[in-house]
């Protein structure tokens, strides 16, 4: 029987990721209100697309201190402030309990669970050590550990090889539309995540939950 595999993204799916709130909390002089924080986050994260400075942190090709220096040049924020911001992020990646509650339900229906996440190594190490939901996953890929990032097709090809995926028997859950497009182009089923209730409805409609 072909394994039915659910591939989860982590950030903004199983982990709260609210960079605007984070910027207002940690960089109030530069992000005194939501509009200013949104503009600052655009300068820092640049949409997290491949080639963006932050995406290279996710790829593992730049460490935190040089990242802060690079981000300072593009954001106008002092490198020391940005380094504190970078180091503080794991403390704010709280588990989304409503999404985590889907994991045992999917397992109970016989599905394999794996993860495919754009994540720098320092954050990945912390999360694996601290978050109980990883016990539900059979395997996973963090971008920084393989030198690839979503939505590059190569990281999906690696996932297919490492996890033994059959694309037609795979569903991918991610909040990022570009990542969803690449998954579907490889023949995976995919659900663009908005919230846990919507994700549950979509998985049910696709026949992955009942």
Percent strand: 5-15%
Shape: globular
Helical residue percent band? 40-55%
Instruction: Give me the CATH superfamily of the largest domain.
Output: HAD superfamily/HAD-like
What oligomerization state is this entry in? single chain
Rg, nearest Å: 17 Å
> How many domains would you count in the coordinates?
2
Query: Which CATH C-level class of the largest domain is it?
Result: Alpha Beta
Spans of at least 5 consecutive residues with low confidence: none
Structural class: alpha/beta
Strand order of the largest sheet: 3-2-1-4-5
The helix/strand order is EHHHHHHHEHEHHEHEH
Give the CATH architecture of the largest domain: 3-Layer(aba) Sandwich
Mean pLDDT over the full residue set: 95
Query: Can you count the helices?
Result: 12
N- and C-termini, Cα separation: 20 Å
Main sheet?
A: 5 strands, parallel
**How many beta-strand segments?**
5
CATH topology of the largest domain: Rossmann fold
């Amino acid at each position: 029987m072909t394994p039915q595999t659910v591939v989860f993204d982590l950030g903004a799916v199983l982990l709260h990721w609210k960079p605007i709130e984070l910027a207002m909390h940690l960089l109030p002089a530069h992000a005194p209100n939501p509009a200013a924080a949104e503009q600052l986050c655009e300068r820092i994260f640049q949409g997290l697309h491949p080639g963006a400075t932050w995406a290279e942190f996710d790829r593992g090709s730049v460490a935190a201190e040089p990242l802060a220096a690079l981000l300072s040049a593009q954001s106008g924020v002092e490198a020391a402030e940005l380094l504190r911001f970078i180091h503080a992020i794991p403390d704010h990646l709280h588990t989304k309990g409503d999404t985590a509650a889907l994991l045992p339900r999917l397992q109970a229906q016989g599905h394999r669970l794996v993860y495919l996440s754009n994540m720098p190594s320092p954050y990945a190490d912390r999360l694996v050590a601290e978050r109980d939901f990883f016990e539900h996953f059979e395997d996973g890929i963090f971008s920084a550990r393989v030198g690839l990032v979503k939505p590059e097709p190569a990281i999906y090809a690696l996932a297919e090889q490492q996890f033994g995926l059959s694309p037609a028997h795979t569903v991918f859950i991610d909040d990022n539309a570009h990542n969803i497009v690449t998954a579907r182009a490889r023949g995976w089923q995919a659900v663009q995540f908005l919230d846990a209730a919507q994700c549950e409805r979509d998985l049910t409609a696709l026949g992955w939950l009942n």
